[in-house]
Design a protein that fits this description.
about 80 residues, alpha+beta, two-stranded antiparallel sheet, about 15% helix, HMA domain-containing protein
Amino acid sequence: MESKIFSYKVEGITLEPSTDTLKVSAVFDRKELTEKLKELFKADGFKVDERSINYKIIDDQLYIQGLAVKEEVAKSIGFMTGK
């Protein structure tokens, strides 16, 4: 099964100081980001494996990392019977 590993930089979602000991991000919609990723990979025939998605903070910037798997056409087995 063909797969790709991806790391997606989420523009505009960074950690900002809230207090001396706490940094927080702006509010964002995880489902919307997942749908955007699905659309990016759909053109190449890949599907994002939602179970593999990890959210990482690198230098106060949000990244989504995971695995995209090549969509395979389902093979059906059909039986023809004559009457």
